[in-house]
Specification:
heterodimer; A: 172 residues; mainly alpha; two-stranded antiparallel ribbon; 6 helices; 2% strand; globular; B: 334 residues; alpha+beta; six-stranded antiparallel barrel; 13 strands; 26% strand
C-alpha cells in the first residue's frame, strides 16, 4: 500500500477539548472491559490501542503521543492481573512512533489509516510479547494467524472509528 | 549535555517514560517473591482507583442492557410460552421420577460413607452476583462482579454457575470483586476424572483453553469423560464440574496433553454464584433420609434473573459471612 508523503506545510496539527482528551480514552477502556463480557468476539479488538494511535497521529507531537499511550496503557493494565506497565510500555512505543510518523505522512487517507493501524497492532503485540516473555519470564505463544487477522480487523475498525473521532478535532 | 538532551528531547522523553515503566515493572515482579504480597500499597491504590472509576459506568451499562432485555423478554418474547410451559411440566414429571431413584442411591451412599467416617464437603452458603465486565484483554482472563467485600466476598472464594466452575476471587474491593477465570494461564484447580479417578491439575492457556495436566501417558483417558474438582486445592469444593475431555494426545514430556471443554460457558457469563461458605461433614445414617445440600444440588439451582422461587432458593442458602475467605468449617455428625 502506497503511503502519501506530504510537505511539512500541508501537515495539520490538531488539538482536542479536555472532555474529548479524557472522555474518549476512558470510554475506550470502559467499552473494552464491558463489550467482551457480552460479545466474546470483541476480544479481537483493542479500542484503547486505536484511540492511542488516533490521538498520537492527530496531535503529531511525539512527547504527547507517548504520554497518551503510557496513560491509556496503564489504565488498561489496572483492569488486568498483570503488573502495571505491560500494556503501558507497548502503547508508549506505539504512541511515540505513531505521532512521529504523523508528522511525515498524510494520515487522513482511509487506506493509510488501515495500513498503519495494522502495522501498529503488530508492533504493539510484538512489544507486549517481548515484555511478557523476555522481562517477566512468563510463557506466551505467538499465533501468526490470530495476530494477522486481529491486525486486519482492528485496521478496518480504525477506518470507521477514526472517521467518527475526526469530528472532535480542532485545528491548533 | 543539556544541548544534546534538548536536541533529542522526544527520544529522551521516550527513554525516560519507558525506563520508569520498566523500573516499576521490575519492582512489581520482584516484590511478591520477597513479601509474599503480590501488590504493594501504592500499586494496589492505582488499581482500586481505576476499578472504582470504571465499575459504576459498567454497572450503568449492565442495568441499561438488562432493562432493554427485560422489555423484550417480558412483552415481545412471550409468544410460545404456553407451549414451553407444557413441555417443562412434562420434563418436571420425568425428573421427579429420576430424582426418587437418585435419592435412594444417594442415601445408600451416605450410609456407607457414615460407616467409613468419610468427610464430605457441602456448599452451605452462596451469593449471587452479576458480571459487570472483563479485563478487556485476551491475555488476562479477568471478570468483574458487582459484589464486593461489603457483601461478604473475600479472596480465594470459588465462583461457579449451574453448569460448572468459573474461577476464584482474586481481589475483593468494597463494592466489586475481581475474578480470575479458570481458563487464564495463571489459574489452576485440582481435578479428577470422573470414571477413572485419575488426578491432575486443570489450568488455562494463552488461547483461553482448559488443559488437564500431570496425567501420565501410560494411563487411559477417554474423550468425553467428565472432569471434576478434586477439592485438593482447598478453594473449589469437591465434585464440581470443570468440563469434559475434548482431546487427548501425548505431550512433550511424560504427561498427556489433554484439552478440556469447560463446563461453564466462560465466554457468556452474566450471573454467577460466589461460594461464601463450605462445610465439612461426616454424614450419618439418619441424615441419609434428609440429605444435606451437596455441591451438585447447589449447582442445580437456578440463578437470579430466572423465576423468583428458584432464585430465592439459590440466594437464601444463607446470608453472607462477616469475614474470611471461603470458610470450611467442620461439623460433627448428628
Amino acid at each position: 500500500m502506497a503511503l502519501t508523503y506530504t510537505s511539512r506545510e500541508e501537515i495539520e496539527v490538531h488539538r482536542f477539548s479536555l472532555a474529548a482528551s479524557l472522555g474518549v480514552p476512558l470510554a475506550a477502556v470502559v467499552m473494552q472491559a464491558f463489550l467482551p463480557a457480552r460479545f466474546h468476539w470483541f476480544d479481537f479488538f483493542d479500542l484503547p490501542l486505536l484511540v492511542t494511535i488516533f490521538f498520537a497521529m492527530a496531535r503529531r507531537n511525539p512527547v504527547s503521543g507517548l504520554i497518551t499511550g503510557a496513560l491509556i496503557g496503564i489504565l488498561q493494565d489496572s483492569l488486568t492481573h498483570n503488573p502495571l506497565g505491560v500494556f503501558g510500555i507497548a502503547k508508549t512505543v506505539v504512541g511515540y512512533i505513531a505521532s512521529s510518523l504523523g508528522v511525515r505522512i498524510d494520515v487522513q487517507n482511509p487506506g493509510v489509516r488501515l495500513g498503519m493501524t495494522f502495522a501498529f497492532y503488530q508492533l504493539h503485540q510484538a512489544v507486549y510479547y517481548l515484555v511478557v516473555r523476555g522481562m517477566m519470564g512468563q510463557p506466551l505463544e505467538w499465533h501468526w494467524g490470530h495476530e494477522l487477522a486481529a491486525g486486519a480487523a482492528n485496521g478496518l475498525l480504525a477506518v470507521v472509528l477514526f472517521a467518527a473521532l475526526d469530528r472532535l478535532k480542532r485545528r491548533a | 549535555m543539556e544541548n544534546l538532551i534538548h536536541r533529542h528531547r522526544n527520544a529522551t522523553a521516550l527513554v525516560t517514560v519507558l525506563f520508569l515503566q520498566i523500573l516499576a515493572l521490575a519492582i512489581q515482579i520482584k516484590r511478591p517473591a520477597e513479601q509474599g504480597n503480590p501488590e504493594a500499597g501504592s500499586i494496589r491504590l492505582i488499581r482500586v482507583w481505576v476499578v472504582a472509576a470504571i465499575t459504576p459506568l459498567e454497572r450503568g451499562f449492565v442495568n441499561l442492557a438488562g432493562l432493554s432485555r427485560n422489555l423484550w423478554s417480558d412483552y415481545v418474547g412471550l409468544r410460545g410460552v404456553r407451549q414451553e410451559n407444557r413441555a417443562l411440566r412434562e420434563e418436571m414429571e420425568r425428573l421427579r421420577i429420576e430424582q426418587a431413584q437418585m435419592r435412594e442411591a444417594a442415601s445408600q451412599g451416605q450410609r456407607l460413607q457414615a460407616l467409613l467416617a468419610f468427610k464430605q464437603q457441602f456448599i452451605s452458603e452462596t451469593l449471587a452476583a452479576q458480571v459487570l465486565g472483563t479485563s478487556g484483554s485476551e491475555r488476562s482472563r479477568i471478570l468483574y462482579l458487582d459484589k464486593g467485600s461489603n457483601d461478604g466476598v473475600r479472596e480465594d472464594m470459588a465462583v461457579i454457575t449451574p453448569e460448572g466452575v468459573v474461577g476464584k476471587v482474586l481481589r475483593a474491593d468494597s463494592n466489586s470483586s475481581q475474578v480470575l477465570a479458570i481458563n487464564d494461564p495463571t489459574s489452576g484447580a485440582g481435578a479428577v476424572l470422573e470414571k477413572s479417578r485419575l488426578q491432575g491439575v486443570v489450568s488455562g492457556s494463552d488461547a483461553g483453553e482448559l488443559r488437564l495436566r500431570y496425567v501420565m501417558v501410560d494411563e487411559k483417558v477417554e474423550v468425553g469423560e467428565r472432569v471434576l474438582t478434586s477439592g485438593g486445592d482447598r478453594i473449589y469444593p469437591k465434585g464440581l464440574p470443570l468440563g469434559t475431555v475434548a482431546a487427548v494426545k501425548p505431550g512433550s514430556d511424560l504427561f498427556f496433553d489433554i484439552r478440556v471443554q469447560p463446563a461453564a460457558q466462560l465466554n457468556r457469563l452474566e450471573e454467577v454464584l460466589i461460594v461464601t461458605r463450605i462445610v465439612e461433614q461426616v454424614p450419618s445414617a439418619e441424615a441419609a433420609e434428609a440429605p444435606p445440600r451437596r455441591a451438585a444440588e447447589i449447582l442445580s439451582q437456578r440463578l437470579p434473573g430466572l423465576p423468583p422461587k428458584a432464585a430465592e432458593a439459590a440466594a437464601t442458602a444463607a446470608p453472607p459471612p462477616s469475614s474470611g475467605p471461603p470458610q470450611t468449617s467442620p461439623e460433627t455428625p448428628r
